[in-house]
Structures are given as structure tokens and as C-alpha cells.
Amino acid sequence: MTPLEIEMLFLVRLVLAASLPILMLLPEAAFANRRACQNLEQSYAQIERGASTVEVNNTLFSATDKGCEELAALALKDGASLEARDRFGAKPLSHAAASGEVALVKLFLDSGAPIDARNLDGSTALYKSAEAGRLETVKLLVERGAEVDLPGRSGITPLVAAAYMGSEPIAAYLLEKGADPNWIDGTKKSAIVYAAGRGFLPVTRLLLDSGVDVNARYGNDLTALMWTAGHSSEAGVLDVVEVMKLLLDRGANVDDRDNRGRTALMIAAELDHTAAVELLLARGADKSLRDDQGKSAADLTSLTALRETLSAAP
Predict the structure, then answer these.
(1) How many angstroms separate the Cα of 171 from the Cα of each of 22, 242, 271?
(2) 156: domain range?
(3) Mean pLDDT of the chain
(4) C or N: which end of the chain has fewer Cβ atoms within 10 Å?
(5) Where are the ANK repeats (predicted)?
(6) pLDDT digit string, tens, across residues 252-289
(7) What per-residue confidence (pLDDT) applies to 29?
(8) What percent of the chain lies above the pLDDT cut of 90?
């Protein structure tokens, strides 16, 4: 063998060695799922003849959660109701959608499950599927006629749920199918507020490309830039900075004020978000401005170094 062939063989062996644990997990997971289904089937066989309505419905939920299509079909044959609710008020279709069980979603829809039925919290199967990041079940439900903008809990639509989770593929698909990118939920926020505030750059860009006004006002007169300046603690600092750059590049007004008279700079300063403050200053934010209580960004921060930066002469 030539030196090049030896090197290529070595690289192939490295790749196979690294992939082996993952490859071994796939059949193991499938085996575990099948074993769980077998256990449920055996348990149900012992009670099937005299099973109560509650027991049959509980079997349907258990089968759905484990992806046991045959047992779910049997439970339906034995009288399980697709209108049954679990202790949280969710129906079997929502369980299947949230778990990404495409075959079960098809089975339930073909068996008459109302596609836009709401759980007690107001959520639909499409909402639960989008929230859980299940692209294939999202596609199936939309193809079968699910209403893309039907809101779930707190007035949140599937698109808003996808934006909150940072799921670009689902957000893109829902937008393609006509979802409203400007929908305002029950807390007076929209998809871009969640995406930007949680540092999800691709979803934020997608929403802007869909026509969302970068300077639109939401609850408390906040803009997407202000929400991002006061970003969630779960968001990565670098991710948030990139989102802020995008918003500013797309024309976000750096010194807009909320209903307290505060700018994005003041919001970032109060929360001690140093990277956000530095970016806003670099983009021309006016650190001399004061809010309705007469406080400047320097007054609001608890960090000495940041206060010095904000107090320094231009």
C-alpha cells in the first residue's frame, strides 16, 4: 500500500471507531422500545376481556407514549376513545404529535380524531408538535388540514412556539404554509421577541426576511432590540450579540425608548449585560439619555467597570 492509502485506511478506522458507540445505541434503543411494547401488550392481554373504559383508555395513552402502534390500534378496536384526556387534559393525538409518532398520528386521524381539537390548556396537536420540535408530525398535521395559526396556551401559535424553541426548520415550514409572522400572543409578544431574546439568530433572520418590522413595538412599548438587550439568562452571550448585530444591521433604532423611557442600552446596563452594552455603544447608543425617573445607563448598572465605561466622557 502507498503511504496515502495507509493514511486513508487509518482515517476510515478512526471514523468507524468514533461512530461505533452511536451505531450500537440505535438497535439497542429500538430493542428497548419493542420490549416496552411487548410488556404493555402482555399486561393488556391479561385484562382485555373485562377491561373497563378507563383501563382501555389508559392503555391507549401508554401505547401512544411508547410508540406501540399495534397496541394502540387494538385499544381503539376495543373501544378506547380519541376524546379521552389524561390528567393534564391532553388527548391521544396530542401525545402522538408531541412524541413525533408519525404512524400513530396517521392512525388517530384516520380513526376520526379532530385535527384541531384543543387540550384543556388550549393547545392543539400542531402546537404540541411544533413546541416539541417534531418536524415530520408538523408536516403531516398541516398536510392533513391543521390550522397553522390556531393559538394554544397563552395565545401562542405553533410558529411562536417554534421560535421560542429556536427551531428554524419548523418555523420555516410554517411560514411557507402561511403562518402569520406578526402574531401577538396573550403576553403581547411575538415570534421575533422570543427568537431574538433567546439568541436564536437563524430564526430571527427568518422572521425579518418574512417581513417583520424590526422596530415594531410589543408589550410595554418594547422593541425586539430591547428584548434582546435584556436577554434571557438561558441565552448564550455571543449568540445574543450576533442577534443584536443583525437587528441593528436591519435598521433597529438604537435609542428607541420603552414605556419607562428606557433604551436598549439602559436595559442592558441594568442587567449587567456587558457585551450588549459594548455593542450598543459601538453602534452609537447615547449613554447620556435618562429614563422617566432621571436615571442614566450608568446609574442602572451594578458593575463598577461597566459604570465607569458608561460614565466616561465621549
Answers:
(1) 29, 19, 29
(2) 55-179
(3) 91
(4) C
(5) 88-120, 121-153, 154-186, 187-219, 220-259, 260-292
(6) 999 999 999 999 999 999 999 999 999 999 999 999 99
(7) 53
(8) 82
Distances (CA, A) of 68 to 76, 110, 166, 195, 303: 12, 17, 29, 35, 55
Q: How sure is the predictor about 234, in pLDDT bands with cuts at 50, 70 and 90?
A: confident
- Beta bridge partner(s), residue 290: 296
**173 and 188 together in one domain:** no
Higher pLDDT, 40 or 24: 40
Evaluate whether 95 touches 83 at the Cβ level (below 8 Å).
no
Is residue 55 a contact partner of residue 74, using CB atoms and an 8 Å limit?
no
Q: Could you give the 3-state DSSP secondary structure of residue 190?
A: coil
3 state SS of 20: helix
pLDDT digits (tens, 9 = 90+) for 182-204: 999 999 999 999 999 999 999 99
Q: Are 240 and 231 in contact (CB under 8 A)?
A: yes
pTM above 0.70, yes or no: yes
Sequence-distant (≥ 6) Cβ neighbours of residue 195 within 8 angstroms: 163, 164, 166, 171, 203, 204, 207, 243
In this structure, the answer to whether residues 165 and 62 fall within a common structural domain is: yes
For position 129, what pLDDT does the model report? 97
- Give yes or no: residues 68 and 160 share one domain: yes
Whether residues 185 and 175 share a domain: the answer is no
CA distance 134 to 52: 33
Question: Three cell numbers at 220?
Answer: 410595554
Out of 144, 179, 214, a domain closes at 179
The Cα 133–Cα 65 span in angstroms is 16
- Choosing from 151, 179, 207, the residue where a domain stops is 179
Cα distance between residue 104 and residue 70, in whole Å: 9
Q: How many domains does the chain have?
A: 2
Both 186 and 300 in a single domain?
Answer: yes
Q: Which of 139, 131, 140, 141 is nearest to 166 (CA)?
A: 131
